[in-house]
C-alpha cells in the first residue's frame, strides 16, 4: 500500500502547483488533523480539523497573502502508512514584497487512501520576517 500512499501525496503536490485546491482537499479525510509548524504564521488554528478548516485557515490565507507561492517537493519518502516530503517553499508576501525560500518537511499519515494527519516543519523565522 505504501507506493499508493506516495502517489496520493505526489498527486496533492501536482494539484497544488496547478491551483487545483479542490483536488488537494479531495485527498483529505473528513476528519483530517492538520498541524502547521509551531510558531508558523498560520499555526494560530492548530490543529485544523477537516478539509473546510484547512481550506479556510491555511489555503485561502496563502492564496490571499502570497504571490507565486510554491511548494516544491525534492524527495517523497515512503514510510508505509506515512509519507515524508522534503522540499522548499517559495513566494513573495504581498503586503511587504518580501520573499521566502525556506526548507520544509511534511509528514502525512494515510489511512484508507486518505490523509488523516498532516504535520509541517519549516523555517518559521523566514515567514515571520516576511510578514513584518
* Low-pLDDT segments: none
Please give the alpha-carbon distance between the first and last residues: 44 Å
Q: Return the string of H and E elements.
A: HHEEHEEEEH
Instruction: Tell me the number of strands.
Output: 6
What's the CATH class label?
Alpha Beta
Strand content: 35-45%
Identify the quaternary structure here: single chain
User: In this structure, how is the largest beta sheet organized?
Assistant: 6 strands, mixed
Structural class: alpha+beta
Give the helix proportion (percent range).
25-40%
Radius of gyration: 14 Å
Shape: globular
Give me the CATH architecture, please: Roll
Number of helices: 4
Number of domains: 1
- Give me the side-by-side strand order of the main sheet: 2-1-6-5-4-3
Helix/strand layout:
Blueprint: H1 2-17, H2 21-25, E1 28-35, E2 48-49, H3 51-65, E3 66-79, E4 82-93, E5 99-111, E6 114-122, H4 124-131
Parallel strand pairs: 1-6
Antiparallel strand pairs: 1-2, 3-4, 4-5, 5-6
Overall description:
It contains four helices and six strands, in the order H-H-E-E-H-E-E-E-E-H. By secondary structure, the chain is an alpha+beta fold. A hairpin with a 2-residue loop joins strand 3 and strand 4. The mean pLDDT is 97.
Please give a handful of descriptors for the protein shown:
alpha+beta, 132 residues, 44% strand
Question: What would a concise description of this structure say?
Answer:
The protein is an alpha+beta fold and 132 residues long. It has helices at residues 2-17, 21-25, 51-65, 124-131, and strands at residues 28-35, 48-49, 66-79, 82-93, 99-111, 114-122. The radius of gyration is 14 Å and the shape is globular.
Amino acid at each position: 500500500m505504501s507506493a499508493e500512499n506516495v502517489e496520493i501525496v505526489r498527486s496533492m503536490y501536482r494539484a497544488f502547483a496547478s491551483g487545483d485546491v479542490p483536488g488537494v482537499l479531495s485527498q483529505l479525510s473528513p476528519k483530517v488533523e492538520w498541524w502547521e509548524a509551531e510558531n508558523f504564521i498560520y499555526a494560530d488554528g492548530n490543529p485544523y480539523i477537516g478539509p473546510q478548516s484547512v481550506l479556510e485557515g491555511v489555503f485561502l490565507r496563502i492564496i490571499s497573502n502570497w504571490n507565486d507561492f510554491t511548494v516544491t517537493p525534492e524527495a517523497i519518502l515512503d514510510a508505509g502508512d506515512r509519507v515524508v516530503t522534503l522540499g522548499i517553499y517559495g513566494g513573495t508576501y504581498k503586503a511587504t514584497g518580501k520573499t521566502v525560500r525556506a526548507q520544509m518537511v511534511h509528514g502525512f499519515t494515510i489511512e484508507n487512501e486518505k490523509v488523516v494527519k498532516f504535520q509541517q516543519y519549516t523555517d518559521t523565522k523566514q515567514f515571520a520576517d516576511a510578514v513584518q
